[in-house]
Write a structure and sequence with these properties.
Blueprint: H1 7-18, H2 23-45, E1 54-58, E2 64-66, H3 67-81, E3 86-91, E4 98-99, E5 109-117, E6 128-136, H4 146-149, E7 158-164, E8 168-173, E9 178-184, E10 189-194, E11 205-207, H5 218-229, E12 240-241, H6 247-257, E13 260-263, H7 278-291, E14 295-297, E15 317-320, H8 322-333
Helix pairs in contact: 2-3, 5-8
The structure holds 2,5-anhydro-1,6-di-O-phosphono-D-glucitol (AHG) and manganese (II) ion (2 copies).
One manganese (II) ion binds near residues 69, 92, 114, 116 and 119.
Length: about 325
Amino acid sequence: MARRTTLTQYLIEQQRQHDNIPGDLRLLIEVVARACKAIAHHVSKGALGDVLGVAGSENVQGEVQKKLDILSNEILLEANEWGGNLAAMASEELEKIHPIPNRYPKGEYLLLFDPLDGSSNIDVNVSIGTIFSVLRCPDNIESPSEQSFLQEGSRQVAAGYAVYGPQTVLVLTTGNGVQSFTLDRELGSWVLTTRDMKIPEDTHEYSINASNARHWYPPVTRYIDELEAGKDGPRGEDFNMRWIASMVADVNRILTRGGIFMYPADKRDPSRPGKLRLMYEANPMAFLVEQAGGAATNGTSRILDLKPQHLHERVAVFLGSKNEVERVTQYHAEGGH
Ligand code: AHG
Ligand code: MN
Ligand code: MN
């Protein structure tokens, strides 16, 4: 049997070849991956575990929390607290940052996560996941603040996600391409199964929640109208549509076979540009997508260049196959919004 490369081996080999994954960053990634394994275990219990349904609380963004949102958040916090590699964490489910308690040693990294992405899919047994992002702590690691986290996405040192689906996969970048690992449940290890994921520049598949169509701004309406018109429209070819409502699953499909994913800003609430969160969703996914040869913008700017104003900031997202992202970004430049 051909030798299988585990996550640990991959990270050590990267460090030897490229000197880009110091030991503390490797350990941090491995702890996150281990937490994802624990979350996968709970997810797979479904109705046999006490993991389905709502928790009876709301998060800082006013969203109803599911039991699994809270459980996943706790698993990630607990797993990462004591290892000595972090100064603080931030989570979609926590209003404030979570500094490492004084009883543990501190490290030079910051970890951000969306503990459970695709909450609306938990109870219906559709793929869900975890998204994470790693930054370096710019200030004194003994007293990190929210400000320490407000860095452009281009400064991420690692990002990735896990998908809890028919297979459990972990997709990771440390700035040197994108690798996908599949969980071997018998051995309990992440096995490298796709090296250097690449997003084709062209695609015939798009992803958007079309129930919001009446709220869209003109550039998005124009772009989607053209895709829907297919062979009979200005594009002269047919396009297929997929919307899973778990960003992890939609992005995983795009990293696997191409496509464009959109969650635009719309006219409903100008103070809320889009639904997705810059720090926990857009930045890590944009880093992965660019590392795989794709593009990611908010309609006007590269997502990784945006300077965050606050932790729970929302942002419009257009990401995936380069030529389509450039086209819809161009439509924004030509006006209408
Ligand atoms: P979360 O479950 O972390 O709140 O994220 C859900 C996000 C994202 O995963 C998905 O693409 C989108 O919300 C789905 O939005 P709709 O409900 O509008 O389909
Ligand atoms: Mn999410
Ligand atoms: Mn979430």
